[in-house]
Amino acid sequence: MDIPILNTILYPIKWVIEALLVGWHTVLTAFGMDAAAGLTWVLSIVGLVLVVRAALIPIFVRQIKSQRKMMEVAPQLKKIQDKYKGKKDQFSREAMQRETMELYKKAGTNPLSSCLPLLIQMPIFFSLFSVLNEARNDQAGVGLLTKELSNQFGQAYLFSGDFKAPLNLSIQTAWAVGNGTVVMLAIIMVALMTASQFFTQLQLQSKNQTPEMKASPMYRQQRVLLYILPVVFIFSGVAFPIGVMFYWLTSNGWTLVQQFLVIRNLPTPGSEAALAREARLARKNRARMTEDAAALEAAGVEPAEAPKPITTQRSQPVGKNRAKKTGSTKK
Known about the structure:
By secondary structure, the chain is mainly alpha-helical. The chain has 14 helices and 2 strands, in the order αααααααββααααααα. Strand 1 and strand 2 form a beta hairpin.
């Protein structure tokens, strides 16, 4: 990356990236792994992902809340769009934009909030790409990545012999030099990245949406993105080195598992996932009650009977004639 402004923006991020990368590399080599081995550097990249994604958990929770609020206001947003449908004058466009922003403000959400984790990760992703690219050119990093470590990182590879797969090669460069191992490995990784991204979005849209949300225009837009994003991975995967793709694949795997846990334990109320969670909790309660009853029976303790409800007989109104007869009888 030879763009001065971009290098200036990415400088602090690259410094942190290098610190985490070198830190994990130091820990792994302290446990006896080869400092120059490709596996050591791949695991260092995985460790980098774990730290970055763990730090992004609060932002991810905020993203989930924002997505739910966006879905909740989708019917009201459609009403605003229908209100100004076909009106292209300046006054109508400004009024529509004003009412839309007021709706977002009232709901406490913003369309960009759902994209925040991705927007934060992109500079990290490109910083890692820059670090690996500089290491490939035998350049020292901006921080803790010394020239020696940079040289190790730039020349690291997986496997050996005729199946050697350097981390700094992409599908494009590997095809040019005739390295079939990198091409096959990269294709497999792109396929896994695409599949993980697809299933992450699929489980979010199929299980964690209420019927009202699925009827909104925003849901239809997300369904379109469900098929567009995998295509982006396919085309972008051609240009990125497999060292960077390990970061991307690990990050996608984290997102898939994280999304599964959130949908399972904190589903959107009224969604298919929420109904499934209620059914699971009901089964657990029944199983626990059965176990408690069995334990009492084994201990020879009779289960306590449920208290009978106290009923009071309602006094019937007595007419005057009947009251007189009752009084005469008592005499």
